[in-house]
Design brief:
The chain has about 90 residues and is mostly helical. The chain is built from three helices and two strands. Helix 2 (about 40-50) links the parallel strand 1 (about 35) and strand 2.
Length: about 90
Amino acid sequence: MLGIIEGGSENTIVAKGLLDDLVGRGLDPSRPRLYVLDGGKALHKAVTDVFGKEALIQRCQVHKKTQCFIIPTKIRASKYLNRHNHGLQGV
């Protein structure tokens, strides 16, 4: 773990504060790196604000699979169960 910071919600100010702290502790912002992110817009903006618009950013494939396949499947299952449970009321 490189750093941790407390924040009320995911937002650019909190994420940028974390990245600024890393730079302040010696992380060279001019060195090219690949930033693998979870897909949140706030962290993406913070990385481009701190490391420049040319920063190489890739979406984490585990997060992408979870958000694109697993979560929607759970939502569909929940909606299916809710529809069928309403039909059972009064039985």
